[in-house]
Amino acid sequence: VQLVESGGGVVQPGGSLRLSCAASGFTFSTYTMKWYRQAPGKERELVASISSTRGITNYADSVKGRFAISRDNVKNTLYLQMNSLKPEDTAMYYCNFRRVTAYDYWGQGTQVTVSS
After folding, report:
1. Secondary structure letter of residue 1 according to DSSP
2. pLDDT tens across 44-93, in order?
3. Pick from 14, 37, 69, 108: CA 20 to 30 A from residue 45's CA?
4. CA–CA separation, 88 vs 101, rounded Å?
5. Rounded to 5 degrees, what are φ and ψ at 96?
6. Separation of alpha carbons 19 and 81, rounded Å
7. d(CA 31, CA 12)
8. 110 in Cβ contact with 7 (< 8 Å)
């Protein structure tokens, strides 16, 4: 199993970034996928999730209306479109899925820094 995030970087407040997570080694289309983030000194928090086939999405209140999670089950890729970025969005962003055994898989993360 491999999850590889990309697309992070440094952006000014109000800017946009699109994160990607390339998945391999498992049947991507059958799992709910999630984006988490962790800022220095803070706990990891769930940002957004998307269900396997129907694509039902959920968002943390802090990102509703600004972020959009999506997936391409042909390319086995998860996305997070982030708009109207704020300094408080600065964090390492991780993609995740959980097996039915409750084992969690994580990527290595991609850093997002929002600063003027």
Report:
1. -
2. 999 999 999 899 999 999 999 999 999 999 999 999 999 999 999 999 99
3. 14
4. 34
5. -155, 150
6. 6
7. 34
8. yes
